[in-house]
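Reviewer comment 2.1 asked that we show a complete input and output for one of the modelled complexes. We chose the adenosine-5'-triphosphate case, as it is the one discussed in the main text.
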Amino acid sequence: MIGTLVRRLWLIPVVLVGWELLARSVANPFLPPPTLIASWMGERWFSGPLLLTDEAVDNFVPSIVRVIGSWAAAVLVGVTLGVAIGRIGRLADYVDPLVEFGRAVPPPAMLPVFLVLFAMGTQVQVATIVFGIIWPILLNSIDGARNVDRMQMETATVFGVPAHLRLFRIILPAASPKIFAGLRLSVSLALILMVISELKGSTDGIGYLLSVASNNADMPGIWAGVVVLGVLGFVLNSLFLMIERRMLGWHRGARRTA
Amino acid sequence: MLEIEDLTHVYGPGTPNEHHAIDGLKLSVAAGELLCIVGPSGCGKSTLLRSIAGLIKPTGGEIRVGGELVRQTPDNLAVVFQDYSRSLFPWMSVADNVALPLRRRGMDKQRRREAAQEALESVGLAEAGRKYPFQLSGGMQQRVAIARALAYRPSLMLMDEPFGSVDAQTREDLEDLVLKVRGHHQMTIVLITHDIDESVYVGDRVVVLSKAPAHVVGDLRVDLPAPRDQITTREHPDFVRLRGEVGRLVRGVDAPAPTA
Ligand SMILES: Nc1ncnc2c1ncn2[C@@H]1O[C@H](COP(=O)(O)OP(=O)(O)OP(=O)(O)O)[C@@H](O)[C@H]1O
Ligand SMILES: [Mg+2]
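Response of the prediction step:
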């Protein structure tokens, strides 16, 4: 356990020390050493009464709420719509081109539209994230629901499995490997879009802190934002992979033996 | 129990790929009978079974199960498909696979669990309930599929080449399993196979289908002494005679049976 951790993580301190040495030797203000970034973060964000300072709470929390809330909304809408489209006969044939088009629009391109459409603030971020990440979820859900093995559906028919169980115990699990492939993409995409939308149309959030630091040419501040985003992305991805591993254990097992 | 009158099925009628799978098939199965259907590969056996199960709508003729015209899957009918690996749900434990159909029987959770366990015990898989299908061998998975059908307590059980993809030893065990369970449950069984020996060994009656389009070319009663036994039954002179007859019918050779 500790052995594998060491084996997987040893490179991080090496890189940090290398960076520190390099930064000190070139002494360029655009490349602050990690120790400076760390002390900057400690002072500004982690010196509050309960660890976090007001600035940290006021900006981290909205970002996290936005990214998780938008992701959850996109998942709910995307999977529901996708499964419905995938299961209703020829509907997918008509909807497919539309979905392909929606997916082809680069999500940040919609930001100016939403900035005009909605009031500055959370609405803009939610709209940008949801619109950007819903396509891979939708496409994969359609694909997964459409390709449920015919034999499995016939088995359900023969044994008179009622409609709601057919949906929750057969169609959704059968489509879940595909659905999760879409979700995996959407997690990292949601974080990217959160930052982009906060850089422009926001008065709080980690992206907002980044843009403020950038306007002030505050190099340690920029790097601190990058570090926090990296950690947030890492945590969200790990959480997602944990859930995925639980939900798709059967799938990996079945594939190994197939 | 099961009456089939003038059954006809054409795949893709009116298209260039039109295929006559079944043509004027007539068959009647009494309650409690174990009927084996044999026929050459691709003759339309699965088509016949899927019509009985209400999974496809035949283009002509009538099928009645328990006197009722089949429009959708009859209530008391279970199927054991040939391809067990695709008909078991890999995301459910073995016990859940067996218990799922029992919701329709209006049993509560506790009763469903008990019924599933009982069925698993009757196929010799008492310990497998918590496992997942992929953790079992092919023969064990096919036994799970049989247990699922048994727990459902159908009055008519359809089996489509149920032992097609297991090794010879497992196959014999499963044949004996079918003979055992039909003794315990009041059930009519229609078993499709392409194995002539198997049809004579398991069946009370063997019906032989022609090449496509399928119709009945032979209908033989099997009067072998019970209980059947893999060694002695297969040595029985009647067994040898019957398998010869069935074999000839399947190959379409009209050679007369040797006179004893
Ligand atoms: N959905 C379909 N559309 C068109 N033709 C089909 C379809 N299903 C089966 N057929 C054809 O009908 C014929 C009979 O098929 P069926 O599966 O009933 O044969 P079978 O006797 O069960 O064969 P096997 O012994 O190989 O299991 C085959 O020639 C097959 O190609
Ligand atoms: Mg077949």
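Residues B 45-46, 160-161 surround magnesium ion (ligand 2) (CB under 6 Å). We note this here for comparison with the apo prediction described in Section 3.2.
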